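F.,

This is the one I mentioned.
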């Protein structure tokens, strides 16, 4: 696009910034509660909530409390709640069998929410880390995260989640070939309408620290995730990953983390035009909250600005721990 700008004073770009009305008319992007996916941490127990120290304002919720949260989300017009299980170390194992237990924490939470809150879509996380004794997203053999065996496990896990009623599956593991394997298994088992939001361009990021605390994986993780998650220095590779996952049957794609990777969001949207989402991850949330708590920034304003930035970068929606707060402000 070649901008046509007359020389000043014929053109004065400030004319359209003069009043709130003119600014509203010229506004290119909007943020609405419908853009939000709310990640929620679930745990065992009854009527219980537990704060996560590195994510002030975010709590792990027992399933009954997660149902209440889902009702709140629906009443705020948030379309999707995304579940992450905080698993007890007693269910973590070398081969992650709990991941495809039809009655594991995540699947029980999905059923409870789908039963009680028809007006919300449930998204689930397809990755082994909450169930893995060593904290990795894949099965480890002789110190190597083995791809194809992990894909088999993820496929079982995905089927159990679809069976529990998940509307959207979110494979966040970064193994090769998992989207095609999961999509084929869903088709073969009568879940042709279950959507896949692939964590297609997921970087090996240091911004995930608080999340790993939240799901109880930080203590367990040995080493790093650099053999499967992307190198933060790469951009073309993200396009190849997105192309690959779309060709294998992903309905939507995600870029993760969010704000530090808006250039990737824009490239992905421009290149493919597919439904594109970003994850404003735990470390991003923690930074905004921490500065807000210190009084160093206007937290609400920074929160809203950070989310609008995703829309400007071409995203169709955002996973954010701020979702209910944002929706409340937008609904006012
Ligand atoms: C793991 C997973 C992670 C996040 C979502 N799913 C962490 C990781 O890859 O180690 C991070 C989310 C966040 O930081 O908010 N499957």
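My design for it:
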């Amino acid at each position: 696009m070649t901008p046509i700008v007359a020389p000043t004073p014929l053109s004065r770009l400030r004319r359209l910034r003069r009043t709130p009305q003119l600014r509203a008319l010229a506004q290119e992007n909007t943020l609405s509660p419908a853009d939000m996916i709310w990640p929620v941490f679930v745990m065992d127990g009854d009527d219980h909530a537990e704060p996560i120290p590195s994510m002030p304002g975010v709590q792990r919720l027992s399933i009954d409390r997660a149902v209440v949260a889902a009702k709140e989300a629906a009443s705020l017009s948030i379309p999707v709640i995304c579940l992450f299980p905080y698993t007890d170390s007693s269910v973590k194992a070398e081969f992650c069998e709990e991941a495809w237990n039809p009655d594991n924490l995540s699947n029980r939470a999905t059923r409870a929410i789908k039963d009680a809150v028809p007006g919300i879509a449930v998204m689930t996380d397809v990755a082994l880390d909450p169930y893995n004794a060593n904290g990795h997203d894949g099965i480890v053999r002789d110190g190597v995260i083995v791809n194809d065996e992990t894909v088999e496990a993820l496929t079982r896990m995905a089927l159990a989640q679809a069976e529990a009623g998940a509307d959207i599956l979110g494979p966040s593991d970064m193994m090769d070939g998992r989207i095609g394997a999961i999509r084929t298994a869903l088709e073969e088992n009568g879940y042709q309408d279950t959507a896949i939001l692939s964590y297609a361009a997921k970087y090996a990021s240091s911004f995930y620290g608080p999340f790993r605390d939240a799901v109880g994986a930080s203590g367990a993780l040995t080493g790093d995730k650099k053999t499967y998650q992307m190198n933060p220095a790469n951009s073309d590779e993200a396009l190849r990953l997105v192309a690959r996952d779309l060709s294998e049957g992903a309905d939507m794609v995600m870029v993760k983390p969010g704000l530090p990777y808006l250039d990737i969001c824009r490239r992905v949207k421009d290149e493919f035009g597919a439904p594109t989402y970003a994850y404003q991850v735990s470390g991003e949330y923690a930074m905004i909250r921490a500065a807000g708590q210190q009084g160093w920034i206007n937290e609400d304003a920074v929160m809203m600005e950070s989310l609008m930035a995703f829309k400007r970068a071409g995203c169709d929606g955002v996973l954010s721990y701020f979702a209910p707060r944002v929706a409340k402000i937008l609904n006012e």
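Residues 125, 127, 129, 137, 172, 208, 211-212, 225, 281-282 surround PBG (CB under 6 Å).

Talk soon.
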